[in-house]
Amino acid sequence: MTSTRRIDRHLFSLFAGLALLAYAAWVGAHTSPVAAGSDPAGYLLSAKLLTEGRLSTPLRTLPEFPPDDIFEYTPLGMIYSERLGALIPTYPIGLPLLYAAAAPVAGWTLGPVLVATLLACGAVLFTFLLVRELGVGRDLAALAAASLAVCPLVLVTTLQPMSDTASACCNAAAAWCALRARRTEGSRWGLAAGAALALTVLIRPSNLLMAPIVALFLGRTRLLVAAFLGGLPGAVFLGWYHHALYGSVLVTGYGSVWGMFGPEHVAPSLHKYLTWGPAFLPLAVPAVVLAPWWPWRTRARELAALVLWVVAYGGFYAFYPPTHEHRWYLRFIVPMFPALLALAALALEAVADRVRHSRRAPARVATVALLAGLCFAAAWHHSRAGRLAGMKDHAVVYREIPSWVDTTLPREAIVLTLYPSCSFYFYTDRAILRSDVLKPGRFAALDRAARDAGRPVYAIVARDDDERTLPQRLPGAWCEVRRFGDFGVWRLEPAAVP
């Protein structure tokens, strides 16, 4: 019997290892390393500054057109600091630190892909280890990990530089280390839990929500002290960074966002949770429906921590307006998914224990297979609907546009744009003007200044709304000269405005 179990364990480890390698290969092949849009470009530009030994970058302006509103020259993903007289990152420092560590070794093409792949695989692996540490069987732990791996919300935040999957990875790692510390009475695991907690807060400040959860997992004073010591260097660094850039330890690059939070957002957010949560993460259903079977008698502390984990994140982001604006914005609660999956696995394990011994094995195998099929079917459907496999190809234009402008347009050309604005800061040294900030009156002044200086004016705008409203927002005769996917490059005719 022992020999058979050992063989089964080795076969499971081999199969799981191969599956994880296949997942890593798929993620690596489909991950975009491009500084695109707001979040990815903001994270990567911050990382690039770190590799250059800088925390800020000068604001690029046109001498013929002094800014009336500093936002006219401020790219997405950055904010202007009056105190420093420079642009500073909007987004937290944790993810850029990882990109900056990888870039000198793997470059700016492979580096972000490597980081994304490791974080995605880490989220899957630590979820599996967390569920196993809770006493759940290998099959259900693997089901939970696989469900996280294929979740469309996890994929959409893995295949481009974003912080949600990274947060889930570090949260699961912190929880697993804390459980290991409590079981083994090992201070080194307490130190590791504190370090993982510090990293997840560096990645996203709201992950401080994990602090009481990790403390509840640890439970003992000696382990809490070890976790505090493990997280102290990260906390000190974060405090220094916020003070250096934003002027206060308690201020982030997001500024004052508390005015956005409100109780009026709770009901629509909860509705979004209930309608789209099970669609993206089918195991959320047994996690809730089978709640009466949670093993409170034997796992009261762990269950309390897991429930707190889910409630803390779900409750916090329920008050945040973007959460209910679009189904993909449920990505904000991805950091709680390991806890939700752990609750589902615990409930399923408890139900399996109640099945008669003679029927337990086939019933368990059938249940796991059915749930796995449901998870993969849902993931396939929503991933195809969201065109997640094509995200890499879609993002390429954010690198192609600045490259084309830099090599094709004259140096004196004035560029107006919105979505690729931060991409220009990452890939070129050109100034940009925000096409969404300029008002018609200011644009008329820009046009006069450009004509007086002999500088051509170009606008890079997105298809549909931006292009349809271009003549109204920026009055003049525009001529399209080039197209990159959903973006058009338009030139303002010199004689358009008298």
Order of helices and strands: HHEEHHHHHHHHHHHHHHEHEHEHEE
| General shape | elongated
Q: Oligomer, anyone?
A: single chain
Unreliable segments of 5+ consecutive residues: none
State the helix count: 19
Number of domains: 2
Major sheet characteristics: 5 strands, mixed
**Average pLDDT score:** 92
Whole-number radius of gyration? 25 Å
Total beta-strand segments: 7
Between the first and last Cα atoms, what is the distance in angstroms? 91 Å
What order do the strands of the largest sheet run in, or round the barrel if closed? 4-3-5-7-6
Topology:
Blueprint: H1 2-30, H2 39-51, E1 78-81, E2 86-89, H3 94-133, H4 138-150, H5 152-156, H6 164-184, H7 187-203, H8 210-218, H9 221-246, H10 266-280, H11 284-289, H12 296-318, H13 337-354, H14 357-385, H15 391-395, H16 397-408, E3 414-417, H17 421-427, E4 433-434, H18 440-453, E5 457-462, H19 465-473, E6 478-484, E7 487-492
Parallel strand pairs: 3-4, 3-5
Antiparallel strand pairs: 1-2, 5-7, 6-7
